[in-house]
Amino acid sequence: MHKASKYIVEMAIENEINTIVIGNNEDWKRESPLSKKTNQTFVGLPHQRMIEMVSYKAEDVGIRVILTEESFTSGTSFIDGEIPIRENYNKSRRVHRGLFISNEGKRINADINASLQMIKKVFPNAYSNGIEGIGLCPVVVNVS
Q1: Would you list the domain boundaries of the chain?
Q2: pLDDT in tens, 59-81
């Protein structure tokens, strides 16, 4: 986890990113509807610990970390300009893990769509004000 959190902060520095937005839902692991075996693996993921590591490493180098509640971000469409609220939520557009289809039929990586929606929650005018340099390039980090 130290290697992964260090990688995240180093990537932010290299790309001159001054704010990291992290989605975090309180009690999101409680009463998870997954199978017993999958749930045992999922609940053991130390999400909060990763948030703490990224936060202190980022703040040490002057990068701001913002935690945001992420509900409705995975089932609302950034491409269609939807606000991530319950009224716009339609989980059937998230076809399977990794694929989201907009109302117009455009395909986008589901995690990218949700990330853009989280940024919209934190900075509602981010895209209309021309904020540039939003870093959303998913990468697999092998820390073994």
Answers
A1: 2-122
A2: 999 999 999 988 888 899 988 88
Give the bridge partners for 4, in sequence order: none
- Record the tokens describing residue 87, joined without a space: 């009224």
What is the predicted pLDDT for the residue at 95? 85
Q: Which two tokens stand for residue 22?
A: 């992290």
In angstroms, the CA 131 to CA 119 distance is: 11
Of 50, 77, 68, 74, give the one whose Cα is nearest residue 119: 68
pLDDT tens digit string along 88-98? Answer: 999 889 887 78
pTM reported for the whole predicted model: 0.73
Would the CA dihedral through 11, 15, 17, 20 be positive or negative? negative
Residue 39 pLDDT: 54
C-alpha closest to that of 97 among 80, 84, 114: 114
Measured on CA atoms in the order 125, 127, 130, 131, is the torsion positive or negative? positive
Do residues 9 and 53 touch, judged by C-beta distance below 8 A? no
Rg, the chain, Cα only? 16
Q: Is 133 left (phi over 0), alpha (psi -120 to 50) or beta?
A: left
| CA dihedral over 55, 42, 72, 132, signed as positive or negative | positive
